[in-house]
Amino acid sequence: MEAAVACNATSCMTGEICCTAVANNAVATCRATCPNNSAQICTMASQCAVAGQVCMGGGGGGVMTCRTVACTATSCTGGMICCAGQGGALAACQAGPMCAGGALQICATNADCVAPMVCRTANGGANGALDCRAPLPEAGPPDAAGPADATVTDAERPDTGAAADSAPAADATAGD
To answer: Taking phi first (over 0 means left), then psi (-120 to 50 degrees means alpha), and beta for anything else, what does residue 90 get?
Structure first.
C-alpha cells in the first residue's frame, strides 16, 4: 500500500479537496469528499466545497478548515432549513422539508414547521431555543370563543344576572 502524502489547501488535483487527518491516517490527504470527523483544509471561503461554509482557524490542530456557521430560523435560503446541531455541533442549513438524522428544525413561528409540528421550546416555557416539536398535550391554537366542546350559555353563568332555565337540572328530583 502506498503511503499517504500530506496535502494543503491548493495541492490536490481537480475534483479533490484536502481533508484533515482521521483515525489510522497520520496526514491530511486529498479526497473527493471529507469523511466524518474530518474537515476540508482551506485558506479562503471560496475553496470550501459545501455551500454556506466559511474558512476558519482553530480546527484540526490550528489549520484553517471549512466550517458551517450556526444558522437561524430565517438565515437559510433556497429551500434549505436550519437544523439543530447534534453532539455539540453548530446548527446548520440542510435541504428541507425535514432535518436529517433526527435533528430538530430551528424555528421562529409555527409557519416554519411542517404540520403537525409546532414551534416551541423543549418544555413549552418562555425560555430556551425554539424548534419544531410535537405540540404539548394541552397546547393547541388559541380560539377566541374558547374550545368548541365547552360552549357556555348565559343561563349557565351565575355571574351574568341572566335568568336560569325554568326546567330543573338533570340531576334534580321532582319530589318523588
So the answer is: beta
pLDDT reading at 156 higher than 70: no
Q: Is the pLDDT of residue 163 over 50?
A: no
Q: What angle do CA 134, 135, 138 make, to 5 degrees?
A: 145
Distance CA 132, CA 125 (A): 14
- For 12-78, strand residue ranges (E) read 17-19, 29-31, 53-56, 65-68
Contacts of residue 6, defined as CB under 8 A and 6 or more positions apart, other chains included, come to 27, 28, 29
Instruction: Return the closest-CA partner of residue 120 out of 140, 138, 135.
Output: 135
Residue 8: name the closest of 57, 54, 43 by CA: 43
- pTM assigned to the model: 0.42
Q: Do the beta carbons of residue 129 and residue 73 sit within 8 Å?
A: no
DSSP state of 58: S
Written as one string, the DSSP assignment of 81-96 is EEE--STTPPPEEEES
Euclidean distance between the first and the last CA atom of the chain, given in angstroms as a whole number: 102
